[in-house]
Amino acid sequence: MIDVIPPGCSKGSSLAEWAALRGIAREEILAIGDNHNDVEMLSFAGIPVVMGNSVPALKTYGWHETGTNDESGVASAIERFALRETASCA
After folding, report:
1. C or N terminus of the chain, fewer CB within 10 Å?
2. Cα–Cα distance between 59 and 36 in angstroms, integer?
3. How far is Cα 79 from Cα 8, in angstroms, rounded to an integer?
4. pLDDT of 86 over the 90 cut
């Protein structure tokens, strides 16, 4: 696999810029990844979550883990980390 992107551009730098433009603290950001090109994004996010079917290297960072694609892992992570916070504020 090869990613062809401009120098200095990554999912992490793009997420940081997006958050800064909107005034969102990194602690409020949930990011979900499954591959090597997600490391910077997950490192930036306050709530980094790794898919169950991710490359093994991502699971070595000690980040939260969720189910696989076939197990609705993204939905599970959103329910656990995003909706739980919303529900507790009501």
Report:
1. C
2. 11
3. 33
4. no
